[in-house]
Amino acid sequence: MMIKPTQAGLSTNLVVTTDKGRIYYMHLVSNKTEYVPMVSWYDPAAMTRDLSAEALAYARQKAELEATIAATKLAAEQAKAQRVVADKSVGKLDPTTLDFGYSCTGEAAFKPARVFANDTHTFIQLPPGTSASDAPAVFNVSNNETELLNSRLVNGYYIIDGKPAKLSLVLGVGNSAQTVQCQKSSPNSLFSWGGK
Q1: Which pTM does this prediction carry?
Q2: pLDDT for the residue numbered 132
Q3: Given this model, what pLDDT does residue 177 score?
Q4: Residue of 9, 7, 12 lying closest to 25 (CA atoms)
Q5: Which long-range contacts (CB under 8 A, 24 or more apart) does 63-70 make?
Q6: Which band of pLDDT confidence, cut at 50, 70 and 90, is reported for residue 171?
Q7: pLDDT tens digit string along 36-74?
Q8: Are the C-beta atoms of residues 125 and 157 closer than 8 Å to each other?
Q9: HEC string of 129-179?
Q10: Of the ranges 46-55, 154-163, 174-183, which is most confident?
Q11: Which residues, including other chains, have CB under 8 Å from residue 124's CB and lie 6 or more apart?
């Protein structure tokens, strides 16, 4: 709204109503030497609401960031604890007692570089460059039955509790599934690498 007085010394009032239901009362005085080109005002309640909304949004973002940081730290600690548990559960490996008498058949890209076992665990070394998304599921095969094995990936090796005689590594489902079969094929042999 624009108001332009025609001469100095005038005095009047002005009432402005807005579409938000507010009413503003003003007293207008014209002066020959003093000129106010623009006047504005604010609604304290609206400012309070805006500041409160900003504060809530900031608090929510801060809480989400803190939760993300906490979740990341927890995941890192759990991963570290699992690595420690996995490493400790295997115990010390004596190379002279390892059984490399496994052979693998299949042409999948994840065909193990080697499979070997000690008295309590079986180790499957995937080929270099196999990513977590390309890692297969590991099954025990016994009496034509398959059972998903609990395995963990530690330093590029699947570690499986126990010493199954026949394993099946499967990636994908249905007709597009890729499979590699590994089984114990010879007596304990230090130099049979099992990747053939």
Answers
A1: 0.48
A2: 61
A3: 86
A4: 12
A5: none
A6: confident
A7: 777 777 777 777 777 888 888 888 898 888 888 888 888
A8: yes
A9: CCCHHHCCEEEEEECCEEEECCEEEECCEEEEECCCCEEEEEECCHHHCEE
A10: 174-183
A11: 112, 115, 138, 151, 157, 158, 160, 167, 169, 182
Instruction: List, edge to edge, every strand of the sheet that includes 157-161.
Output: 114-117, 121-125, 157-161, 151-154
Beta carbons of 127 and 113 less than 8 angstroms apart: yes
pLDDT of residue 192: 43
CA dihedral 181, 147, 174, 180 (to 10 degrees): -10
Closest of 108, 103, 91 to residue 161, by C-alpha: 91
Q: If you average pLDDT over every residue of the chain, what do you get?
A: 80
Checking if the pLDDT of 117 tops 50, the result is yes
Q: In this structure, what token pair is assigned to residue 110?
A: 């994840």
User: Position of tokens 């690595």?
Assistant: 83
3-state DSSP assignment of residue 14:
strand
Q: Do 104 and 181 touch, CB atoms closer than 8 A? A: yes
Please give the backbone phi and psi of residue 167, each rounded to the nearest 5 degrees, phi first.
-125, 150
Distance between CA atoms of 196 and 192, rounded to whole angstroms? Answer: 9
| DSSP code, position 90 | H
Burial of 141 from C-beta contacts in 10 A (0-12 / 13-18 / 19+): middle
Distances (CA, A) of 16 to 23, 31, 71, 130: 6, 22, 54, 73
30: CB partners within 8 A, 6+ apart: 5, 7, 8, 9, 10, 11
